[in-house]
Each structure stands twice: as structure tokens, then as C-alpha cells.
Amino acid sequence: MRGGIPICFPQFGNTGTLERHGFARNKIWALDDEPPQLNHSDNGSKAFVDLILRPSDEDLRCWPHCFEFRLRVSLSKDGDLSLVSRVRNVNCKPFSFSFAYHTYLSVSDISEVRIEGLETLDYLDNLSQRERHTEQGDAITFESEVDRVYVSSPNVIAVLDHEKKRTFVIRKEGLPDTVVWNPWEKKSKTIADFGDEEYKQTLCVDAAAAERSITLKPGEEWRGKLELSAVPSTNCSDHLDQPGIM
Asked: What keywords does the record list, in alphabetical order (predicted)?
């Protein structure tokens, strides 16, 4: 799947034994008949859908762990999109997983985009066997292929699109890392479902748990939230000053 926000679970990337980014993004989810209670502040203010994924027999053969994955997708009147994932261990033994909201953003021109909020952080470079480096720039800009995991990143990140004078504000909770990916020209030509020139209008900025796995004991539940807003670039600093998303 190329575009939107694929759910990478129970594996992000190709660091394990499963297919790249896990199997959840390629599954048919069901409507959740017993969703979690709404927050009081959400009542009537958002349109939402509750989905659930349980492992099939095929899933259990390749990843032998029983789980319930509940996902709430909400859209506010202002166009803010939020996704809340809850993964519960209904197994009789612990299991570990990695996770990402693999968020594809549409941008005017990748060479005119910058990311703020990841300065001075350490990152794992997937283009060099996950070598660890420290970000040196005042902001992240793009002149070649980028595939990095920024570890222990802040909960609010901004993606500024100068040409459109628009900023995507990404807020996250329960997800310590941020993945930044653009294939650039050479790799774009090797990806079957990716146009040769599409890298110019594409940027992935993922809220993730990628450096270290999440481990759940029997009966435990993990929760991870993503909130995505588009605001005029002149207002983006106000959003970056916000300490949290809840």
C-alpha cells in the first residue's frame, strides 16, 4: 500500500522475521462492536470509526501471539485527524512488537520542505546499517535519499512546506521515535508501485516505536496516538510550543 497512513504492526521495517512493516496494513479489519469509551471532550465534536483486528490462523503461524488491536480513527470539524491504537495481549505469555503510523504527506516540492523539532537528536541511519549519528542541522532539509529513525523524539514535530505556506503539525503519544523517509530519484525508479517523479511530492514522517520493541505481559495493553493537523506556516510556532497532545 503506497499512501495514506499504513499501520505497521507487529514489525516496523525489515528488522524481524515477518514481511516488511508487518501484516496489519494488509488485513481486512472489522468494525468494533465493543469500542472503548469516548473521552468526554470528544462527545459530538468528532466523526469517528472504531475498528478491530484479531490474528487469523495464517497470522498465528508466522507470529504465534494472540492479540486484540483496536483502532479509533477520528476527524474533527477543523479537519484534524487522529488515530488511537490499543494493542492488548490476550495470550498466556509475553510478546514484543514494533510499530509505526507510516504517514505519507503530500508536499509541493521536497526540496522546499523542512522538518523542525528533531534538531540535535540521535538517529539510526537505515542507509548505513542503522549506524547511529547525531543531527547537526538547525532543521532537516532534503537533497538526497533519507531513511532515518530519530530516537527519543519530542511529541510535537512540524513539517513546513514553503511553497504552499502550510505546515503539518504532528503530535504523538506512546511513540518515542520518529521515522523520516524519502526515496529520492534513484530508489524511486526501483520501487514498482512508486512513480519515478513522485518522490518530489512525497514525504513520510512516522510516529513510531522502532528503536526498542514494546513488550506486553498477558492482559496488558499498550496505547499509541497520532494527531495530524494542517495549519498556515505563520502559526506553526504556536503549535510547537505545546508540550503535549492530550
From this structure: Isomerase
